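For homework, think about our next protein:
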Amino acid sequence: MDDGADDRRTLLGRLILPWTAVPAVVYDRHLTVQVANRLAKAVHPTFRAGANLARSTFLEPERDTPVDPAGTAPIGARLAGELRRALDEHQEDREYIALVGELAAQSSAFAQFWANADGSQPNGVVGFAVPSVGHLVLAYHRFAVPGPDGDTLLLWSGADDESAETLRLLASTLAD
C-alpha cells in the first residue's frame, strides 16, 4: 500500500534542500534520515540520507559523538526517548523491533536509557565539534510531518550568539 511517504519526502526535500542558513533534517519514526540539506551534513556526518541516528550514536564509537551541553539530558537518553515516543504514536513493526533489539543487544548504554525512556522533548540543545569551524552549540526543534509514516522535521539554529555566528561562517564555506 502506497501511503504517499515518498511524495511527502520529495516535497520536503524541495523545501529544505535549498536552505543555506538553517540546518534541516527529515527522519522517520525509526530515526533513519530521509532528507538532509548541505548545512546539516556539514554540521555532522550522521545527517545524511540512510543514516540511522540511534545506530550512529550507540553503535559507531569511532564517529564524533555530539556533546551534551551542561544541564541537558544525555543525547543517548533523548534518542531512546524519541524511539519510545515513536512507539507510543505508531504500532511497532519489524523494523522497529529489529532496531531496538539490535541496539539493546549491542549497547549497554542504550539498554539503560531504553529502560528509563519516557518520551522526548520537542526541543533542546546539542554541541557539535565541526572540524572546519570549531565548536557549535545548536538549539533544535522537532516538527511532526503530517502523514501516517511518522516523519519528523528537525531544524537547528545557533543556541547562543557565538554559535549563531559560527553557523553563519560554516554556511558561508558551503556557498557555491
Notes: The beta strands are 24-27, 33-36, 123-130, 134-144, 152-158. Helices lie at 5-16, 38-43, 53-59, 75-89, 94-106, 108-116, 161-173.
